[in-house]
Amino acid sequence: MKKSAITAAVLGLSLMLAAAPAHAATETSTHTIKEGDTLWKLSQQYKVNFEQLVKANAKLDPQNLAIGSKVVISAATEKKASKPSAKSEAASQSVKAQSVTASNGTVHAFSDKLQVKATAYSAAASENGKWGAVDYFGNPLKVGTIAVDPNLIPLGTKVYVTGYSHDGLPSGGMIATASDMGGAIKGNRIDIFVPGSSSQASTFGIQDVNVYILK
Range of 172's domain? Predict the structure, then answer.
């Protein structure tokens, strides 16, 4: 009788354990692309880091997400406030402060300086496709908007651009935001928005410019 009771108890416990849901250390889910979806919108919807979401879906073209395709949403990409390591803190403290003076006399601290090839684009429908005259985040195009390769300059980065020559842009240099992307903008290239027509933007040509990554 006692043996039967113990056996029943063990059997009951085994069934309870078998029925308990298993939780993986990290969970990976997918999102099926619908009309109007962008990786930026999905990063906000699922509360994940945008840059990590882009990297996790490197095979997808962020500018041309095909409806019905799958986007990997991983728990590993969740936004977390990471504490800098002692090594990284020491390295950052050892780097001498760098700054650049804007054409209006304002001094800006920067972390890196890039030399890139620049072209220009306008708000013309022929240059912006179905998205219209807005940047990647849906904001209207304006002076100070630049398109970048996010693998080189992360989207949202504030920069100071110098070395260009164009009547539609501030003389001497300008503060800009990396808020747009383009299919042809890969690697060491940027595309600068300029007001006016497409033909006016084309007069910009290809220019060598300096891009200061502001802190």
Answer: 97-214
